[in-house]
Design goal:
The complex is a heterodimer. By secondary structure, chain A is of the alpha/beta class. Chain A contains 18 helices and 12 strands. In chain A, α8 packs across α9, α9 packs across α18 and α14 crosses α15. Chain B is mainly α.
Chain lengths: 438, 285
């Protein structure tokens, strides 16, 4: 018995030793080749197929131009991207060049100081970028943490065939009143057709936009108070209620499966819905599904206190603070965003370029969809200042979309909806204030 | 008369059972069939109809999808997946069996404590140890390789399998092993010649589970693999899914169909053992 036990022990030990040997031999197999003056940069981004292809060929062009630089592309879909990025930043293995979203800046800087200050690099030319745009979106604690890849704006996507069918002029400047009357006419003419492809989230954008245009200021003030009053709120809820009553919006009971992804609503794809409130950056993707698509500005009130038109960077390109080759990384970003050659390869895969040199190059080469260029420049002219973080709070958004849904299902009158929203907001804002002032 | 009545009743209840099972079966298999049919649909048709028969049959989705963005084809991702999955499955089976054998048949100091620790790690959600594990493997220099998957599998790191094997082995009669001892076998020979072969069904179900889980794993490779040339299929499939881009859904569906094939083949090839292994673990004895 003792003998056999010893044998087992030996065999088990042998098994583990073997596994360990295998482990280390695996470890040795892909040792980095030692290179003297060669620089290897890692560049991580997310996107769809078109963006991947264009970015890869831009990288090829750069490596041809600077043979001492090697750039490893690390790309994928947006799913899980931020999770991975945070893990890498915390684990100190993040790539040298990182594509980030402006809405992440708050959360990322709460976790630590991860990005290099791009304004301190001589390699980067900031002149082609509009200074106000950088100030508004790309700074965090006085540091320029990233450069905008493109300009993205909120806009209305509309179906030209739909407009033709109901005799709506395309070059119309929409007002809130027009939308209501036109929508009513359309739905009376054909019960299957609705002017607006709006879900609860879009209704929330409408709510905010309407209030901001009426009142100016902020949706939620920095001191945790609401930037609107009861009267205005009742007015906008009454307006939304009318939209449902006259058949401007497809009833939520039918469109509920597409809440959060209205662009996949079959009625929209079939051309039975006329307008979709969305970003300019999604225009190409939406146009692939609805070929007769065009864009127009969101409605702006007469005497609006603020236009409430959101214009923001598509994404930012940042340099990892821990990067050993930060200078080379900055040099690459500068080329990637400002160079004519890069612009002609990348075209609008990250929206209309934010750098004027890149934009000029594309315009000269006729490489931009004129609709996107036109709407982007119009939106830039009327851009509202960026929202504070509180106004973009996800929990507040959830409360508002819930109230809007109750309104849509006739469980609340506009007055009740306004009161409920204000009561819930007050409660939630107190809670947030308590948590943040700790 | 009476027996005829009963016969009729039996037939009716049988018919109802079959009708229910068939309906339920269709309900369960519809999404699978939909994926296959979507691979042959044109892109704009996919969201417009629920029908399984494409209006216009498109076949180039498979070819286009296979080439993807052009830098690496799906063939590469397939090979990567096998390089990752095959060792993981092999090591999981061998190491889990060995550890389970120890727990099921030997007495050693602190055995109870170790067993409690094993069971408690079974309760631990995976996401809890994601960051510490990442930091550890990063310190070993294993990031951007398949080592974070293969090496832990050499140490019976999935407690569920160890537990399953322990239960299965406890169900085996000890008398057979005692007979083997009388015949002059030592413990290792018993495992190799007696207990091991008796555990075949459980080992096969363990293999199938581990194969399918590792094959379809998304979060693990997402966190550990950086280079596109080392991407697995799960990463390859989501490579082009972006909210702001035009997505060639038919190509993604086509590649999904191909990605499912190995799992389906393995499952049906080993189905007999699989069902046996699940059904008998823990109730024998």
């Amino acid at each position: 018995m003792i003998k056999s036990k010893r044998l087992i022990a030996t065999l088990v030990l042998a098994f583990f030793t073997m596994s360990l040997i295998l482990a280390f031999s695996l470890a040795g197999s892909d040792k980095v080749k030692a290179a003297s003056n060669k620089v290897t940069l890692r560049f991580m981004w997310w996107g769809g197929e078109a963006r991947h292809k264009a970015t890869l060929s831009a990288i090829q062009a750069y490596m041809k131009k600077y043979p001492n630089v090697r750039i490893n592309a690390e790309y994928g879909g947006i799913e899980g991207y931020m999770q991975k990025l945070i893990t890498q930043l915390v684990g100190r293995t993040a790539p040298d060049i990182i594509q980030i979203d402006v809405t992440w800046i708050g959360e990322l800087s709460a976790q630590g100081d991860f990005f290099a200050d791009l304004k301190t690099f001589r390699e980067v030319n900031l002149k082609p970028f509009e200074e106000k745009f950088l100030r508004d979106w790309c700074y965090s604690n006085g540091k320029l943490i990233g450069l905008p890849t493109g300009v993205n704006a909120s806009a209305i996507h509309y179906n030209k065939d739909f407009f033709k069918k109901f005799g709506i002029p395309e070059n119309k400047t929409w007002t809130w009143e027009d939308i209501l009357t036109t929508a009513e006419k359309i739905h009376k003419k054909d019960k299957n057709y609705y002017l607006l492809n709006f879900d609860a989230t879009v209704c929330y954008y409408l709510l905010k936009t309407y209030v901001l245009q009426k009142k100016g200021g902020k949706w939620i003030n920095d001191d945790y108070t609401m930037g609107f009053d009861r009267k205005t709120l009742i007015e906008v809820f009454t307006y939304i209620d009318k939209l449902f009553k006259v058949g401007a919006i497809q009833p939520f009971s039918e469109s509920a499966p597409f809440q959060g992804k209205p662009e996949q609503n079959p009625k929209w794809l079939k051309g039975e819905l006329g307008m979709l409130w969305n970003w300019t950056s999604t225009f190409a993707a939406n146009k692939a599904n609805v070929p007769s698509l065009s864009m127009t500005m969101i409605p702006i009130m007469k005497n609006a206190k603020s236009t409430a038109v959101t214009v923001r960077p598509s994404q930012l390109l940042a340099v990892n603070k821990l990067s050993k080759n930060a200078k080379e990384a900055a040099k690459f970003i500068n080329w990637f965003l400002n160079d004519k050659q890069a612009a002609l390869i990348l075209k609008d895969v990250r929206g209309v370029p934010a750098s004027s040199t890149a934009r000029d190059a594309l315009e000269k080469a006729n490489a931009l969809d004129p609709v996107i260029t036109q709407i982007t420049s119009e939106a830039l002219k009327r851009a509202a200042p960026p929202e504070n973080a509180l106004s973009q709070n996800q929990e507040l958004e959830k409360i508002a979309t819930d109230v809007i849904q109750q309104l849509a299902y006739n469980q609340l009158t506009p007055v009740q909806a306004a009161d409920k929203l204000m009561a819930l907001y007050k409660q939630k804002l107190n809670e947030i204030k308590r948590l943040q002032s700790r | 008369m009476y027996s005829q009545n009963r016969k009729a009743k039996n037939t009716i209840s049988l018919l109802l059972t079959y009708a229910f099972l068939i309906l339920f079966g269709i309900f369960m298999i519809y999404p699978l069939l939909w994926v296959v049919s979507a691979a042959f649909k044109s892109n704009d048709e996919i969201f417009k109809s629920l029908s399984l028969i494409p209006q216009k049959i498109v076949t180039n989705a498979f070819i286009k999808g296979w080439y993807g963005t052009g830098q690496y084809t799906f063939g590469r991702f397939f090979i990567n997946n096998f390089i990752l999955v095959v060792p993981v499955v092999f090591f999981t089976i061998t190491s889990s069996t060995l550890v389970a054998y120890g727990f099921a048949r030997f007495n050693f100091p602190l055995k109870k404590l170790f067993f409690v620790i094993l069971i408690s790690t079974l309760m631990l959600p995976d996401s809890v140890n994601l960051i510490p594990r990442y930091i550890l493997f990063n310190a070993f220099g294993w990031v951007d390789s398949y080592k974070p998957f293969i090496i832990p599998s050499m140490f019976a790191s999935t407690p569920f399998f160890v537990f399953m094997m322990i239960q299965f082995m406890r169900g085996l009669p000890r008398e057979i092993e005692e007979a083997a001892i009388i015949d002059g076998c030592n413990s290792f020979q018993i495992l190799l010649r007696v207990t091991g072969p008796l555990c075949k069904t459980a080992m096969i179900s363990m293999g199938i589970f581990q194969f399918i889980w590792t094959w379809n794993d998304f979060l693990g490779p997402l966190i550990y693999i950086n280079s596109v040339e080392k991407y697995t299929i799960a990463l390859g499939l989501r490579m082009c899914v972006d909210s702001a881009a035009a997505i060639a859904w038919n190509q993604i569906m086509a590649m999904t169909v191909i990605a499912m094939l190995p799992c389906i083949i393995i499952f049906f090839a080993a189905q007999k053992y699989f069902v046996e292994g699940i059904a008998t673990s823990g109730i024998k004895g």
